[in-house]
Amino acid sequence: MKALIVEDDADLRRQLCNLLEQRGYTIEQTGSGREALYLGQEYEYDIAVVDIGLPEMSGLDLIRQWREEGHTMPVLVLTARGDWQDKVEGLEAGADDYLAKPFHTEELLARLNALVRRASGHASPILRYGPLELDTAARVVSLNGTEVRLTSYEYRTLEYLMLNAGKTISKAELTEHLYHQDYDRDSNVLEVFIRRLRQKLDPDQSLQPITTVRGLGYRFALGGGSAA
Amino acid sequence: MSSEAAVSLSLRARLLRASAVILPLVIILAGVALLKAFHGSLENAEASQARLHVYLLLGAVEVDGNQLKLPSTVLEPGFSRDGSGVYGFIHNADGSLLWRSRSSQSIDPDVVQRLPSSLLQPGQALFSHLPQQGLYLFQYPVIWEADGTDIRFLVSVLRSDSHVVSEMKAFSLQLLGWLSGVGLVALLAQYFIMRWGLRPLDQLAADLQRIEVGTTDHLDGRYPEEVQGVTQSLNRLIESERRQRERYRNTLADLAHSLKTPLAVIRGAGDDCADQHSYRRLVEEQTQRMQQIVQYQLSRAVKSEGRVLAQAVAVAPLLERLVRVMEKVYAAQPAEVSLSLQPDAGFAGDERDLMELLGNLLDNAFKYGNGQVAVEAGLEADQLVISISDNGAGVAPAQRQVILQRGARLDSQTPGQGIGLAVALDIVSSYDGALEVSSSTLGGACFRVELPGGPVSQDA
């Protein structure tokens, strides 16, 4: 998952980045509304966290402009005031959820998780396809009820594919959403992850959850999905 | 102050300038009228003098046959003295001169020639001024009955106007003196009246300055009726500002004091807590408590004073906005919302307060409800009544009193308890409203709010 963090307080921004990176998000960060506007226009993010009280360009204006230009990524606003007037203004500007400062890290993570899921059309935090189950909240994958141990990158790759189940995801998109933009994008690495995932999820090759669409990318597909 | 004076003239300068224009105008007009009247009365006196002279002449006339005879000296000595300024002439009907006074030698012959040309009927008198010659002319035609025949002749008396001119000169000089005096006195009087009349404003400025330097805290002087309105509003403004300041000070003090307890707990925990885990939990608990305190005081600080306003805020659009926003926030646990809103229902208070109050109540309904929320709003007399119900677990009757207990200190509440209701209650009570909890027909809790209300114009 790729997240954009827009917060002008350097300490809080660093905390947010650390927190989200620990939870497997790929992070872009900025303290300026103008730069955030540009980043949002140029790159695709799965979620943005925006502080309302930014210098130069307010968070509300930033969100409004993104929405006017048709950028639909889910946005969570952080507000210091926390009164309803503020929240209503943020939500009416186009934000999808709000959180008043100071907040509990667990609550922030839960809300972000819910927003990402909602944006890809999943109501429940648990994605279930056939014998395969992925709990986005607990970040646990299980096959026929037994937990499958995955590395962080493997988990993120699988989560992205499952959230976009049925869609063909190009290698470029997958890299874009999983790695930092400065990362050395060697598609071989991705192929290695996919191969390992296939081995772990489908050791006897009876399920075939991830198919390679030649020349286009990968697609996750399994019968009996619960994608709502 | 000097720049303000450049923008707008002082009241004093305005009044002085106006009277500097109007007063001379009035005085000049009065002077002209007086001169005119005095001149008129002088001329009247002149005319009656001349008439008197005519009668004198007539009294001295003797008719012999159809000849007119006049003695060489008449009663009025002026007629005999040369250059006396009184001249007499008598012409007969065909215009030939019958008699002229001895004084009349110096009169312009032209004037004498023109004397009989006036066409006067007997009984008609003529009085006119001949400015070029400096003379007043009085003519009187007479019919004399003697021996059965009527003799017509015309008596003319000329009088020098030098007397009138000199009188007028003296009078105008005197008048000028008096009027200038009056003008001066009037200006002076005006100045003092103005100073006296505007003194309350000077006093007001001085009193305000005293408030500024802090010797007093309100305007307590006695002011005239016209200024009383201003001073009353100023006093109200000062008072509300002072109360606001006090409120801020209290809030700040409350905030500082209520933060001390959790800080003390954290400080003491270093010695008290045996292990890392319990220390972390304690810090977590106490910061949560501090967060609630800060948020509560913050929401109190932005809350208005709860003044009832004449202009009512429309409730229906605000509730619709809030519901839209709630549906967005609670998209993961969507609720079916039924709105029954009276379109003209209004709240006679601050819009921000209403939004905060309803935001908190609706948030609770969405959070604790189980997929169903009902909102009703309407006016009952001049009361705005809003009820928000849900189908959640509801509030047990024993708990109802507790959650709405007014004055329950926040920093003594257990962590985790929402502050939304405390804020809502605060807002309601600042408007002398009411907040009740009961069970709703949906099966959960029903929060019913009563606030000062009023109708909203539909087109607004």
TrEMBL record, chain A:
One matching Pfam family: Response_reg
Keyword Cytoplasm annotated: no
4-aspartylphosphate: residues bearing it: 51
Matching InterPro entries: CheY-like_superfamily, OmpR/PhoB-type_DNA-bd, Sig_transdc_resp-reg_receiver, WalR-like, WH-like_DNA-bd_sf
Domain of life: Bacteria
GO cellular component assignments: cytosol; protein-DNA complex
Name under which the protein is recorded: Two-component system, OmpR family, response regulator PhoP
Species in which this protein is naturally found: Marinobacterium iners DSM 11526
